[in-house]
Amino acid sequence: MLLRPALPVAFSSTLPLFSHLAAVRRRCSIAATGMAGVSAASPAAAQIGSFLSKKPYAPPSWASHLALAPSHTFSLGHFPTPIHKWNLPNLPEGTEVWIKLSGNKVRKLEFLLADAVAQGADCVITVGGIQSNHCRATAVAAKYLNLDCYLILRTSKLLVDQDPGLVGNLLVERLLGAHIDLVSKEEYGKIGSVALADLLKKRLLEEGRKPYVIPVGGSNSLGTWGYIEAVRELEQQIQLSGDVQFDDIVVACGSGGTIAGLALGSKLSSLMAKVHAFSVCDDPEYFYDYVQGLIDGLQSGLDSHDIVSIQNAKGLGYAMNTAEELKFVKDIATATGIVLDPVYSGKGAYAMLKDMADNPSKWKGRKVLFVHTGGLLGLYDKVDQMSSLAGSWRRMDLEESVPRKDGTGKMF
Q1: pTM for the complete prediction?
Q2: Per the database record, which ranges form the Tryptophan synthase beta chain-like PALP domain (predicted)?
């Protein structure tokens, strides 16, 4: 069975290019802006002018006791996003894997940018890697809301004084007119993202601007509400389907906000699914501590170790891939039509299947939901490494005797 919204899929480049059959069924179109989601099921969401609108927010009943509940949100994504079965090879006996296309960064930005506008900001600041999906999504969303966007991007010491180019997320950000400041990884590690953002904020304040700082990945307690709301969405999709219940939720972890919202929501709601996070940077204990800080900010009274299982999947390091990982991304695309990004979901899915192979009894007979967090533009940064894996091409062999038919082959 296919869990899907009542209306056709709308625009998103953070969604995977899933199989052509699924694409036909949901009439999916892919845009280049990085805003994510599908047409919302409610009639109001389909009305002209509802996109980008400010609307009051009421938490799910099971989250009404949490602190920092937002009063308003901006409609930046089109939800709910679809869920469909993912026919992965070599699964443990009786195991099913389903996939949800998440609109990851936009969910957090709906709440964070509503807060920025409420505080009278005229620009936003955020920080990330040179191919940060979050930074690209922030630049798009800020432009939609008529806010200037300032990005502090981390790159190598060798490249920090050079033009960063127009590859992947950078192309979108620079087309949008985002202000980009480059820092080396060494400078980033020494100073830290918070101090870097505060330094730029101070300079903008001195210029008479009104900046609003969004943390790395949009991952603070307010941003966590984006995935609390995503759990409500998932809960409603399951209720509408009537015959699908998930035992486990799996997601890649890069900044902590997504897993905090998913884990907290799953624990408090009717889902009660076990949340597994595969960290693509830093170590599990770092993320347990970081998630604890986020859920403490919401006064949840819960322990992060009790609501999420975090395993290391960073491999060579953040945004660095082995040849085997990149071949996995290619093989999964060829086998299933799902394109994974190499930085987040690619490593998450790779680690999930490895864990299933190593510990089949842990996963046997379970229904698993994998949350694809987008980021396909990051593939463009891996072109050189993946060129040998890409499909072949050839010039079409034309017979000279083939007659030309009127109305075809004309040049305009």
Answers
A1: 0.86
A2: 75-374
